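Hi, can you check this record?
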Amino acid sequence: MHDPRLLIRRLAEAHVDFVLVGGLAGIVQGMTRVTQDVDICAALLEANLARLIDALAGTNPRFRGPPRLPFPADAGALLGYKNLYLETDDGELDVLGEIEGIGSFEQVKARSVALPLFGSAILSLDLDALIDAKRALNREKDRGDLRELELIRAKRHRS
């Protein structure tokens, strides 16, 4: 079974500029849903893509979905991508250039909070930003997450 902590540690150790989003961001905010993949928003600029390539070295990274093409070793080959959907020996990794309901990586980063995770300070969407993103996506699984996140926010406001 894949352990998402391994991917997050690799990203942090390689100094990839990223913000944790999606299911894991919800979990660190108190959500109870289980997820095995890692969703991040990251600067898809050449220097950061080079750090991403370094972080994934040795994990057999490849693009998800047929024909599962190998992940390039040259950051320049990734310029122009808006999102990267990858699978690695450590698990699935979705690298998003922007988040619906929030905006660009810089806007996402401005609405994040540093949390101690797995031995590093990891940026993760703050609770209000996560709620905005889930509301904008409006998928069935996001609607369930949204209800739980709104309950968490209401409970925190009462405390």
